[in-house]
Amino acid sequence: MSNPRLLWAPRAWIASRWQPQVLMHIGANGHFSAVTTNTPAPEAATVLPGPVLPGFVNAHSHAFQRAFAGLAERRSGASDDFWGWRDRMYAVAMRISPEALRAVAGQLYAELLQGGYTQVCEFHYLQHAPSGQPYADPLAMSQALMAAAADTGIGLTMLPVLYERAGFTAPTLRDDQRRFATSAEQVLALRRGIAAAGQPRVTAGVAIHSLRAARPESITRLQQALEDEATPIHLHIAEQTAEVADCLAATGQRPIAWLAGHVALDARWQLVHATHAEPAEIDAVARSGAGVVLCPSTEANLGDGLPDLPRWLAQHAVTSIGSDSHVARQWPAELRLLEYGQRLALQRRNVAAAPDLGLDATAARLFNRHLAGGAAAAGFDAWGLAEGARADLLVLDAQADGLLGVPASHQLDALVFATDAPAFAEVWVAGQRCVEGGRHRQQAALRSAFGAAMQALWPAD
């Protein structure tokens, strides 16, 4: 019988390119103990049924919003925008229970795995009971997300969120934000509690909802408390033009400029969206080593705008991908939309390619950049098909629509730009197969629980 601790692939994406005959040794800790190329398959190895890519990190998720995907696509007034969507989204935020959150997140995490994500960064601000009072266990909602991760096998970076006020000049939160309220001290306590839970494949960082939702002194307290810790620190920033205008009015500076001037940005910081960033702000973020988390499908769905991707790339900024509100749940679709937005705006093709740097393949450049950036966003030093990294991998179905008949050298191009549905035959996390034949192994039970939760949240009208 073959040894599941020894995997072999005909080709695998290693050191930013395809390499042949790859043998992967998986240690008892679920990490790669060795990865070698040009190695014939030994008899003891499990031969994988296709080319192999590294697992991908989803760097920005609000799992509960999966229960709202597709339910805000009608307009009754003269116009609609992010702020109208947000008010409607609060309807589910005010009703969802820990039990329903586990069911919704379980379905989502299975879909993310099928879409090629093996780690998700959960920007978690839904903390309290619907009344706004803390649960008897302050970690009740966090526990629901960790349980969903355990149910599905996905890796999880929990990011409890600092959320104090409704806007730059608001003293408190709105009533329909009451479930989100946290102080810096509470966020730190939540992080300690998540770490103490000792769940496998779960790590903890922190998040700040936004500059408008957190007081400067609280941001300072959080930063000082984490000064000596290598932990991810995420925040929404410059997503909307109204947010930029409000920040200018309140502080005299644009959001990213204010942050760069008041916080010692470094590689721990992850700026989510940063859609409306001026060249000097992009340059400052890139110099600091901080990361930027782009969420193309959500930014398109909400009408946020387009990032200055050419400048982020030219300045060698650290960039990653998130699915945010989960209107899309596979990373090839996010990379395609990221590139297509630039093509439409600039009326050029292959915008992200850089032949002058020897990088003529758009998909490969986007994949490599966001693969590395996702690892930083999740707090990993090692990631990919390499010794010491967690044994996460994606097995392509070379017979899938969009890949069938495509030359091996162009399969990544076709996966991103010519494949409509997920094309991963198998997905492995920490050396364990979670997806087989393109489907999550617990799909039936997860779908049943999700359907029941959705029926309770949204009774038939």
Number of domains: 2
From the 3D coordinates, which CATH architecture of the largest domain would you assign? Alpha-Beta Barrel
Structural class: alpha/beta
CATH fold call of the largest domain: TIM Barrel
Average pLDDT reading: 97
Q: Which short descriptors sum up this protein?
A:
461 residues; alpha/beta; TIM Barrel; nine-stranded parallel sheet; 14 helices; 35% helix; globular
Overview of the structural elements:
This protein is an alpha/beta fold and 461 residues long. It folds into two domains: 3-54 and 385-444, Urease, subunit C, domain 1; 56-378, Alpha-Beta Barrel (TIM Barrel), CATH 3.20.20.140. 35% of the residues lie in helices and 21% in strands. It contains 14 helices and 18 strands. The protein has helices at 82-93, 98-114, 140-152, 184-197, 216-225, 241-251, 255-262, 279-288, 296-301, 309-314, 331-346, 362-378, 411-417, 443-457; strands spanning 3-14, 17-26, 32-36, 45-47, 52-54, 56-61, 117-124, 155-162, 202-204, 206-208, 233-237, 269-273, 291-294, 318-321, 393-396, 424-429, 432-436, 439-440. Strands 6, 7, 8, 9, 10, 11, 12, 13 and 14 form a nine-stranded parallel beta sheet that branches. β1 and β2 (17-26) form a beta hairpin. α2 crosses α14 and α4 runs parallel beside α5 (216-225). The chain is globular and about 65 Å long. The mean pLDDT is 97.
In short:
This protein has helices at residues 82-93, 98-114, 140-152, 184-197, 216-225, 241-251, 255-262, 279-288, 296-301, 309-314, 331-346, 362-378, 411-417, 443-457; strands at residues 3-14, 17-26, 32-36, 45-47, 52-54, 56-61, 117-124, 155-162, 202-204, 206-208, 233-237, 269-273, 291-294, 318-321, 393-396, 424-429, 432-436, 439-440.
